[in-house]
Amino acid sequence: MTTSTMKGVYPILVTPFDQDSQIDEESLHRLIEFNLEAGVHGLGVALGSEVYKLTEAERAWMTRVVVDQVAGRVPVVINTGANGTDLAVHYSRMAHENGADALMVLPPSFFPAGAEEVLAYYRAISEAVPLPIFIQDVVASPISAGLARRLAEECEWVRYIKVESFPVVEKVAAMSAEAGDVLTVFGGAGGGYFIEEMRRGSVGTMPFCTQPEAFVEIWNCVRAGDELGAWQTFNRYLVPIARLSAQGAGLFHGVHKEILVHRGVIRTSVVRAPAASMDPFTRGELKVLLEELYPDGNE
Protein backbone atom coordinates (compact mmCIF):
# COMPACT_ATOMS: atom_id res chain seq x y z
CA MET A 1 0.00 0.00 0.00
CA THR A 2 1.08 3.62 -0.34
CA THR A 3 2.30 4.93 2.99
CA SER A 4 2.49 8.70 2.13
CA THR A 5 3.25 10.23 5.56
CA MET A 6 2.42 7.77 8.29
CA LYS A 7 0.79 9.18 11.41
CA GLY A 8 -1.63 8.20 14.16
CA VAL A 9 -1.89 5.15 16.41
CA TYR A 10 0.34 2.21 15.40
CA PRO A 11 -0.01 -0.48 18.08
CA ILE A 12 2.76 -3.05 18.43
CA LEU A 13 1.19 -6.51 18.32
CA VAL A 14 2.07 -9.02 21.01
CA THR A 15 2.88 -12.52 19.81
CA PRO A 16 0.26 -14.89 21.23
CA PHE A 17 1.63 -18.27 22.33
CA ASP A 18 -0.09 -21.48 23.34
CA GLN A 19 0.76 -23.39 26.52
CA ASP A 20 3.76 -24.94 24.76
CA SER A 21 5.12 -21.51 23.79
CA GLN A 22 4.30 -22.01 20.12
CA ILE A 23 2.66 -19.19 18.16
CA ASP A 24 -1.14 -19.32 18.42
CA GLU A 25 -2.23 -18.38 14.91
CA GLU A 26 -5.94 -18.20 15.70
CA SER A 27 -5.32 -15.75 18.54
CA LEU A 28 -3.02 -13.70 16.31
CA HIS A 29 -5.77 -13.35 13.71
CA ARG A 30 -8.23 -12.18 16.38
CA LEU A 31 -5.68 -9.72 17.75
CA ILE A 32 -5.07 -8.14 14.35
CA GLU A 33 -8.79 -7.72 13.70
CA PHE A 34 -9.40 -6.43 17.25
CA ASN A 35 -7.00 -3.57 16.56
CA LEU A 36 -8.23 -2.84 13.05
CA GLU A 37 -11.82 -2.68 14.26
CA ALA A 38 -10.73 -0.09 16.84
CA GLY A 39 -9.68 2.22 14.02
CA VAL A 40 -5.90 2.13 14.38
CA HIS A 41 -3.87 3.79 11.65
CA GLY A 42 -1.12 1.17 11.38
CA LEU A 43 0.29 -1.95 13.05
CA GLY A 44 3.77 -2.98 14.09
CA VAL A 45 5.75 -6.10 14.93
CA ALA A 46 8.62 -5.10 17.18
CA LEU A 47 10.18 -5.47 20.63
CA GLY A 48 6.73 -5.59 22.22
CA SER A 49 6.11 -8.63 20.01
CA GLU A 50 9.07 -10.48 21.57
CA VAL A 51 10.76 -10.54 18.16
CA TYR A 52 14.08 -11.20 19.91
CA LYS A 53 12.66 -14.56 21.04
CA LEU A 54 11.35 -15.60 17.61
CA THR A 55 13.22 -17.84 15.22
CA GLU A 56 14.05 -16.46 11.80
CA ALA A 57 11.31 -18.61 10.27
CA GLU A 58 8.80 -17.31 12.83
CA ARG A 59 9.77 -13.71 12.07
CA ALA A 60 9.13 -14.22 8.36
CA TRP A 61 5.91 -16.15 8.99
CA MET A 62 4.52 -13.52 11.37
CA THR A 63 5.25 -10.70 8.94
CA ARG A 64 3.45 -12.55 6.16
CA VAL A 65 0.43 -13.40 8.34
CA VAL A 66 0.02 -9.80 9.51
CA VAL A 67 0.50 -8.35 6.03
CA ASP A 68 -1.92 -10.83 4.44
CA GLN A 69 -4.66 -10.24 7.00
CA VAL A 70 -4.28 -6.46 7.01
CA ALA A 71 -4.54 -6.59 3.20
CA GLY A 72 -3.56 -2.98 2.68
CA ARG A 73 -6.02 -1.48 5.15
CA VAL A 74 -3.20 0.15 7.15
CA PRO A 75 0.61 0.19 6.90
CA VAL A 76 2.54 -2.62 8.60
CA VAL A 77 5.87 -1.71 10.24
CA ILE A 78 8.36 -4.48 11.01
CA ASN A 79 11.29 -4.23 13.43
CA THR A 80 14.49 -5.37 11.71
CA GLY A 81 17.23 -3.98 13.94
CA ALA A 82 20.14 -6.19 14.96
CA ASN A 83 23.54 -5.96 16.61
CA GLY A 84 25.27 -6.63 13.30
CA THR A 85 24.86 -4.63 10.11
CA ASP A 86 24.71 -7.68 7.84
CA LEU A 87 22.05 -9.27 10.05
CA ALA A 88 19.96 -6.10 10.10
CA VAL A 89 20.17 -5.93 6.31
CA HIS A 90 19.11 -9.58 6.14
CA TYR A 91 16.11 -9.03 8.44
CA SER A 92 15.17 -5.92 6.45
CA ARG A 93 15.26 -7.77 3.14
CA MET A 94 13.20 -10.56 4.67
CA ALA A 95 10.57 -8.05 5.87
CA HIS A 96 10.47 -6.46 2.42
CA GLU A 97 10.06 -9.83 0.71
CA ASN A 98 7.16 -10.65 3.03
CA GLY A 99 5.27 -7.45 2.28
CA ALA A 100 6.19 -4.97 5.03
CA ASP A 101 5.32 -1.34 4.32
CA ALA A 102 8.07 0.13 6.51
CA LEU A 103 10.97 -0.88 8.75
CA MET A 104 11.71 0.07 12.34
CA VAL A 105 15.41 -0.18 13.08
CA LEU A 106 17.11 0.31 16.42
CA PRO A 107 20.86 0.94 16.43
CA PRO A 108 23.29 -1.77 17.58
CA SER A 109 23.27 -1.87 21.39
CA PHE A 110 25.34 -4.89 22.49
CA PHE A 111 28.49 -2.77 22.18
CA PRO A 112 28.31 1.04 22.01
CA ALA A 113 28.55 2.30 18.44
CA GLY A 114 29.89 5.70 17.48
CA ALA A 115 28.13 8.13 15.19
CA GLU A 116 30.04 7.04 12.09
CA GLU A 117 29.28 3.37 12.77
CA VAL A 118 25.60 4.14 13.30
CA LEU A 119 25.55 6.12 10.07
CA ALA A 120 27.16 3.25 8.15
CA TYR A 121 24.64 0.82 9.68
CA TYR A 122 21.59 2.82 8.56
CA ARG A 123 23.13 3.61 5.20
CA ALA A 124 23.64 -0.11 4.49
CA ILE A 125 19.99 -0.86 5.28
CA SER A 126 18.73 2.12 3.29
CA GLU A 127 20.78 1.11 0.25
CA ALA A 128 19.63 -2.52 0.46
CA VAL A 129 15.86 -2.11 0.94
CA PRO A 130 13.55 0.51 -0.64
CA LEU A 131 11.22 0.95 2.33
CA PRO A 132 10.69 3.89 4.71
CA ILE A 133 12.78 3.47 7.86
CA PHE A 134 11.89 4.47 11.42
CA ILE A 135 14.95 5.11 13.55
CA GLN A 136 14.18 3.54 16.92
CA ASP A 137 15.69 5.70 19.65
CA VAL A 138 15.93 3.52 22.77
CA VAL A 139 17.59 3.81 26.17
CA ALA A 140 20.25 1.22 25.32
CA SER A 141 21.33 3.10 22.19
CA PRO A 142 19.96 6.66 22.18
CA ILE A 143 20.09 8.87 19.11
CA SER A 144 20.66 12.61 19.47
CA ALA A 145 18.66 15.07 17.41
CA GLY A 146 21.82 16.07 15.57
CA LEU A 147 22.66 12.49 14.62
CA ALA A 148 19.04 11.80 13.66
CA ARG A 149 19.12 14.75 11.32
CA ARG A 150 22.34 13.52 9.74
CA LEU A 151 20.90 10.02 9.27
CA ALA A 152 17.87 11.46 7.48
CA GLU A 153 19.99 13.70 5.28
CA GLU A 154 22.51 11.00 4.32
CA CYS A 155 20.29 7.89 4.11
CA GLU A 156 17.59 8.04 1.45
CA TRP A 157 14.97 5.89 3.18
CA VAL A 158 15.36 7.17 6.75
CA ARG A 159 12.13 9.14 7.07
CA TYR A 160 10.84 8.67 10.64
CA ILE A 161 12.03 8.41 14.22
CA LYS A 162 10.32 6.74 17.17
CA VAL A 163 11.52 8.49 20.32
CA GLU A 164 11.56 6.48 23.54
CA SER A 165 14.80 7.26 25.37
CA PHE A 166 14.36 9.41 28.46
CA PRO A 167 13.40 12.13 29.07
CA VAL A 168 10.95 11.22 26.31
CA VAL A 169 8.87 14.39 26.26
CA GLU A 170 11.89 16.71 26.19
CA LYS A 171 13.52 14.59 23.51
CA VAL A 172 10.41 14.68 21.30
CA ALA A 173 10.48 18.48 21.57
CA ALA A 174 14.18 18.62 20.69
CA MET A 175 13.79 16.16 17.83
CA SER A 176 10.85 18.10 16.38
CA ALA A 177 12.71 21.40 16.66
CA GLU A 178 16.08 20.24 15.34
CA ALA A 179 15.13 17.55 12.81
CA GLY A 180 11.39 17.88 12.25
CA ASP A 181 11.87 19.24 8.74
CA VAL A 182 13.60 16.04 7.60
CA LEU A 183 12.10 13.42 9.95
CA THR A 184 8.53 12.63 10.99
CA VAL A 185 8.47 12.15 14.77
CA PHE A 186 6.55 9.39 16.57
CA GLY A 187 6.42 8.73 20.29
CA GLY A 188 7.05 5.36 21.89
CA ALA A 189 7.52 4.18 25.48
CA GLY A 190 4.17 2.40 25.40
CA GLY A 191 2.24 5.57 24.65
CA GLY A 192 2.74 6.79 28.22
CA TYR A 193 3.40 10.39 27.15
CA PHE A 194 1.15 10.45 24.09
CA ILE A 195 -0.62 13.75 24.76
CA GLU A 196 2.52 15.65 25.81
CA GLU A 197 4.33 14.29 22.74
CA MET A 198 1.60 15.50 20.39
CA ARG A 199 1.86 18.98 21.91
CA ARG A 200 5.55 18.97 21.04
CA GLY A 201 5.38 17.88 17.42
CA SER A 202 4.88 14.12 17.46
CA VAL A 203 2.40 12.89 14.86
CA GLY A 204 1.81 9.42 16.25
CA THR A 205 2.52 6.77 18.83
CA MET A 206 3.37 3.06 18.91
CA PRO A 207 1.73 1.71 22.07
CA PHE A 208 0.78 -1.78 23.13
CA CYS A 209 -2.14 -3.40 21.34
CA THR A 210 -4.36 -4.06 24.35
CA GLN A 211 -6.39 -0.82 24.49
CA PRO A 212 -6.41 0.43 20.90
CA GLU A 213 -9.81 2.10 21.14
CA ALA A 214 -8.55 4.29 24.01
CA PHE A 215 -5.51 5.45 22.05
CA VAL A 216 -7.62 6.16 18.96
CA GLU A 217 -10.08 8.16 21.07
CA ILE A 218 -7.23 10.19 22.58
CA TRP A 219 -5.80 10.83 19.11
CA ASN A 220 -9.19 11.98 17.84
CA CYS A 221 -9.81 14.21 20.86
CA VAL A 222 -6.43 15.96 20.62
CA ARG A 223 -6.83 16.47 16.89
CA ALA A 224 -10.26 17.99 17.51
CA GLY A 225 -8.90 20.33 20.19
CA ASP A 226 -10.54 18.44 23.06
CA GLU A 227 -7.59 17.89 25.40
CA LEU A 228 -9.90 17.55 28.40
CA GLY A 229 -11.60 14.59 26.76
CA ALA A 230 -8.22 13.15 25.82
CA TRP A 231 -6.97 13.35 29.40
CA GLN A 232 -10.16 11.83 30.77
CA THR A 233 -9.70 8.75 28.58
CA PHE A 234 -5.96 8.64 29.24
CA ASN A 235 -6.32 8.81 33.02
CA ARG A 236 -9.28 6.43 33.15
CA TYR A 237 -7.95 3.61 30.97
CA LEU A 238 -4.23 3.97 30.37
CA VAL A 239 -2.64 5.30 33.55
CA PRO A 240 -3.69 2.42 35.84
CA ILE A 241 -2.34 -0.17 33.39
CA ALA A 242 0.88 1.77 32.80
CA ARG A 243 1.57 2.06 36.54
CA LEU A 244 1.04 -1.62 37.14
CA SER A 245 3.03 -2.87 34.15
CA ALA A 246 6.01 -0.57 34.82
CA GLN A 247 6.89 -2.24 38.12
CA GLY A 248 9.54 -4.57 36.72
CA ALA A 249 11.62 -5.17 33.62
CA GLY A 250 9.78 -7.51 31.30
CA LEU A 251 6.60 -7.54 33.39
CA PHE A 252 4.71 -5.52 30.77
CA HIS A 253 4.47 -8.42 28.32
CA GLY A 254 2.67 -10.58 30.85
CA VAL A 255 0.41 -7.76 32.03
CA HIS A 256 -0.67 -6.86 28.51
CA LYS A 257 -1.27 -10.47 27.55
CA GLU A 258 -3.45 -10.90 30.66
CA ILE A 259 -5.48 -7.89 29.49
CA LEU A 260 -6.00 -9.49 26.08
CA VAL A 261 -7.05 -12.78 27.68
CA HIS A 262 -9.56 -10.91 29.85
CA ARG A 263 -10.90 -9.10 26.80
CA GLY A 264 -11.38 -12.39 24.94
CA VAL A 265 -8.81 -11.66 22.24
CA ILE A 266 -6.09 -14.26 22.89
CA ARG A 267 -6.23 -17.60 24.68
CA THR A 268 -3.21 -17.53 27.00
CA SER A 269 -0.92 -14.99 28.64
CA VAL A 270 2.19 -17.10 27.98
CA VAL A 271 5.39 -15.09 27.53
CA ARG A 272 8.38 -16.94 26.14
CA ALA A 273 11.14 -17.65 28.65
CA PRO A 274 12.98 -16.02 30.17
CA ALA A 275 10.24 -13.73 31.42
CA ALA A 276 9.29 -11.92 34.60
CA SER A 277 6.16 -13.19 36.30
CA MET A 278 3.60 -11.42 38.43
CA ASP A 279 3.46 -12.20 42.12
CA PRO A 280 0.05 -13.18 43.54
CA PHE A 281 -0.63 -9.67 44.87
CA THR A 282 0.05 -8.01 41.52
CA ARG A 283 -2.00 -10.60 39.68
CA GLY A 284 -4.90 -9.98 42.06
CA GLU A 285 -4.63 -6.22 41.63
CA LEU A 286 -4.66 -6.60 37.85
CA LYS A 287 -7.75 -8.80 38.06
CA VAL A 288 -9.62 -6.20 40.12
CA LEU A 289 -8.53 -3.42 37.77
CA LEU A 290 -9.63 -5.28 34.65
CA GLU A 291 -13.01 -6.12 36.15
CA GLU A 292 -13.49 -2.41 36.80
CA LEU A 293 -12.30 -1.21 33.38
CA TYR A 294 -13.79 -4.03 31.29
CA PRO A 295 -16.49 -5.73 33.40
CA ASP A 296 -17.84 -7.68 30.44
CA GLY A 297 -14.45 -8.47 28.94
CA ASN A 298 -14.16 -6.87 25.53
CA GLU A 299 -16.18 -3.66 25.70
UniProtKB/TrEMBL annotation:
Q: Name one Pfam family in it.
A: DHDPS
Query: Which keywords describe this protein according to UniProt?
Result: Lyase
**What SUPFAM superfamilies does this protein map onto?**
Aldolase
Q: Which residues does the record give as pyruvate binding sites?
A: 206
Give the UniProt record's GO annotations in the biological process aspect.
Answer: N-acetylneuraminate catabolic process
Q: SMART domains of this UniProt entry?
A: DHDPS
The UniProt GO MF terms for this protein read:
N-acetylneuraminate lyase activity
Instruction: State if Lyase is listed as a keyword.
Output: yes
Keyword check for Lyase: yes
Q: Name one GO cellular component term.
A: cytosol
Write out the similarity annotation: Belongs to the DapA family.
Record protein name field: Dihydrodipicolinate synthase family protein
Organism of derivation: Caldilineaceae bacterium SB0664_bin_27
